Amino acid sequence: MKRADYVNLPSTLLNHLFDQEVLIKQNVEETFGLTIWELVKLRSSQLNQCAYCIAMHTKQARQYGENNNRIIGLSAWRDMPFYTAKECLALELCEKLTQSEAIDDMFYAKLTQEFDDEALLTLTIAINAINSWNRVVKMFKPNVDFND
């Protein structure tokens, strides 16, 4: 079934999502970096089973210098030796927020050892944003392009 071409609809709401991405990217570059951002976007997309976003964020991660082993290993990141302590915390937060799990004080304290308050806010909003995009894309199902 053909679904709406949501990207080309004259939607103020969709424009706000695009504008938010620009603002998030600026904050990410100033706080914890594009690599963690792409890992979080890719992991959230895996958890949400969003094929389009998995393809998109795999390509973007490669453009930002991410290597294939880290991309392939992301679905089992806890058992892979490829990720820093900071990246592991970001991925754990991503999983908890994506799956609507509680953030207890002990985990929050761990996060504050690697991320300052501004970075935590940016990371939280970035995770929220990719989850929002995953849901929009799953609704409208654009064509998935895995070509490199």
Instruction: Tell how many strands the DSSP assignment holds.
Output: 0
**Main β-sheet, in a few words?**
none
Supply the helix-strand structural class.
Answer: mainly alpha
Strand content: under 5%
Q: Which parts are unreliable, with pLDDT below 50 for 5 consecutive residues or more?
A: none
Tertiary shape: globular
Treating each run of at least 4 consecutive H or I residues as one helix, how many helices? 7
Distance between the amino and carboxyl termini: 27 Å
Give the fraction of residues assigned to helices: 55-70%
Q: Rounded to an integer, what's the Rg over CA atoms?
A: 15 Å
Mean pLDDT: 95
What is the string of helix and strand elements?
Answer: HHHHHHH
Oligomeric form of this entry? single chain
How would you describe what is shown here?
With 148 residues, this protein is mainly α. The protein has seven helices and no strands. The chain has helices spanning 12-31, 34-47, 51-63, 68-72, 85-98, 105-114, 117-140. Helix 1 packs antiparallel against helix 7 (117-140), helix 2 (34-47) packs antiparallel against helix 3 and helix 5 (85-98) packs across helix 7.
Topology diagram in text:
Layout: H1 12-31, H2 34-47, H3 51-63, H4 68-72, H5 85-98, H6 105-114, H7 117-140
Helix pairs in contact: 1-7, 2-3, 2-5, 2-7, 5-7
Provide a concise account of the structure shown.
The protein is mainly α and 148 residues long. Helix content is 68%, strand content 0%.
